[in-house]
Amino acid sequence: MPPATTRSPRGPRERAPRATCRLIGRLCAAVITTAAAVVPATAARAAVPHVVEYGPLPTGPLSGACEVEFDGNGRLWVEQYLAGQFTRFDPATGHFAEFRTPMPLSVPGGEEIGQDDAIWSTEVTGNSLLRIDPDTGAMQEIPLPWAGALNTSGLELPLHTGLGLANDITKGADGAMWFTLGGLNSVGRIDMATHQMTKYPLPTATGAQQALFGIIKPGPGRTVVTDLPLENKVFSINVDTKAVTEYRMPTPGSFPLGVTTGPDGAIWVTEELAMKLARIDPETGRIQEFPLFGLGGLLGSLFDGGGIGNPLPIPGPIVTGSDGRLYFSLNFAGSVGLGNKMGSFDPVTHQAESYATPSSLSSPCDINNEQPGSIWFAELTANKVGRLVFD
Fold first, then answer.
1. How deeply is 184 buried, as exposed, middle or buried, from its count of CB atoms within 10 A (0-12, 13-18, 19+)?
2. In angstroms, what CA-CA distances link 70 with 67, 78, 85, 120, 166?
3. pLDDT (0 to 100) of residue 189
4. Are strands 276-280 and 256-261 parallel, antiparallel or unpaired?
5. Model pTM?
């Protein structure tokens, strides 16, 4: 019989490390597998910002698609100022429905959901406000009581014009709607119960300075903010006291255009001709400017992403996204430059980025931030609806 020492008593002790290694190996493999599963999932949740397009709109390419506004049922209303109409777009079905304004060539302006859940807009050349039923598309014209140059209502003709040049409209903290009056160097207010209108002049050097570029938005606290681009000024109006505060932009001829209230409670402004963003502290009046042009700005990134368009970062309307960044269109009133990009700016890090639209020469126009994770806009030249997805 072979000696018992043929299988050394050290054998079991020699096998133990191998078993331990196999156990550790299985644990390591499990950890690696788990990590591999978790990392892609985390990365998938961080969306890469990109633009999706819908359309084109049924009307031809010269419809003037610009401002967009969501109604209470999640349908997007697109203002078409050259066609004198609005298009209602349902993102769930992709369906477009068109509604003409009562007056031909009325040049519809900005839009806003009113306290009555209707779409409120302006007729720039029609010297009127518009109230639109979002379900039927029926429109009610409410004439401005000032600067009416032609009124043919008694003749049962749809023509009426004036020099009020109401271009944009917004909701005030006082329960009224506020709107620009570019031809009268004023802002207007309409009482939602009585439809009585009042105008409040803005201090200007010459007449008709807002023209077709005036934008008005809710400001910090109980204010609205608006701009006079040719005066190089931004104004804040207290909706209760009607007190007007004037801010002159530091860069001469900067053409302040877009205005909004940022996540920091400051007034943020796009300076179109200066190619800058500006931050106005409403408490101190201090104004800081942030250049978009140059190696430290958007110029380099504007050449990325493909597409053909003006590479100059000419900012237009601006809003705050649900991620706390400021978003703005590029090439607004300068749309003859045929830009095809949207921009963003982090108010904390001051980092700027840009995002190309799939269509070249698209000219993104006015923008909407009502849906978290997205910025919606209309493309003036491409005649499409765009959606910048960032989350």
1. buried
2. 11, 9, 16, 12, 21
3. 98
4. unpaired
5. 0.85
CA atoms within 13 A on the CB side of 306: 6
Q: What is the dihedral of CA 315, 320, 325, 331, to 10 degrees?
A: -10
Residue 379 CA, chain-centre distance (Å), reads: 12
Task: Please list the residues that pair with 384 across neighbouring strands.
Answer: 379
86-118 confidence digits (pLDDT tens): 999 999 999 999 999 999 999 999 999 999 999
- pLDDT tens readout for residues 127-184: 999 999 999 999 999 999 998 998 887 788 899 999 899 999 999 999 999 999 988 9
Report phi then psi at 164, rounded to 5.
-65, -35
Q: What is the edge-to-edge ordering of all strands in the sheet holding 326-330?
A: 315-320, 326-330, 341-345, 352-356
Identity of the residue numbered 209? Q
Burial tier of 345 (Cβ tally within 10 Å: 0-12, 13-18, 19+): buried
From residue 10, alpha-carbon distances to 14, 17, 19, 21, 23 in Å are 6, 12, 15, 18, 21
In sign, the C-alpha dihedral spanning 210, 215, 218, 220 is: negative
Mean pLDDT of the residues in the chain = 84
CA distance 263 to 344: 14
Question: Reduced to 3 states, what is the DSSP secondary structure of residue 25?
Answer: helix
Confidence of residue 34 (pLDDT cuts 50, 70, 90): very low
pLDDT at 23 over 70: no
Query: How far is the C-alpha of 366 from the C-alpha of 293, rounded, in Å?
Result: 21
Structure tokens at 365: 């126009």
Alpha helices in the chain (DSSP H): 10-45, 299-302
Place of tokens 């023509």: 159
Q: According to DSSP H, which parts of 176-332 are helical?
A: 299-302
CA distances to 81, 221, 321 from 261, rounded to whole Å, are 26, 10, 11
CA–CA distance, 271 with 317 (Å, rounded to integer): 10
Give Cα separations from 220 to 173, 181, 214, 223, 248 (angstroms): 10, 21, 18, 6, 18
Alpha-carbon span 389 to 51, nearest angstrom = 6
Run of H or E residues at 111: strand 108-113
At position 330, the amino acid (one-letter code) is L
| Total residue length of the chain | 391
